Amino acid sequence: MTRPLFLVAAVVLLTGWLPLLVVGLRAQAIDGVAALQAAGTQATLVLVCLCVGLQQSSFSSLALVTAVWMVVSGLIFARFLDRLQ
Predict the structure, then answer these.
(1) Which of 1, 37, 41, 56 keeps 20 to 30 A from 80, CA to CA?
(2) pLDDT tens digits for 28-54?
(3) Buried b (16+ CB within 10 A) or exposed e, 1-40
């Protein structure tokens, strides 16, 4: 019974990307990096919800890789933004 709820949660989390997209496109560069980090966190949560909802264990490893790379990419973007300004 709880499996469809995880799929609904994944869809709800995906709709949360719309405000982050607006911030990423319209705001300053550092605000865009913050929006990118938030979108990465939501992507990880979406993958975890899909893993539980669809009972696919492959999504759990993808969620772990996504979480690690989002931290690394945020640090890289912040370093390059510091050089540009």
Answers:
(1) 41
(2) 888 888 888 899 999 999 999 999 998
(3) eeeeebeebbeebeeebeebeebbeeeeeeebbbbbbbbb
> How is residue 42 annotated by DSSP?
H
Tell me which long-range contacts 22-30 makes (C-beta under 8 A, separation of at least 24).
Answer: 29/81, 29/84, 30/78, 30/81
Structure tokens at 7: 């799929």
| Threshold 0.85, pTM exceeds | no
Q: What phi, psi does 2 have (nearest 5°)?
A: -80, -15
Residue 85 has pLDDT above 70, yes or no: no
Distance CA 9, CA 25 (A): 25
Distant-in-sequence, close-in-space partners of 63: CB < 8 Å, separation ≥ 6: 44, 47, 48, 51
**Structure token pair of residue 27:** 């705001």
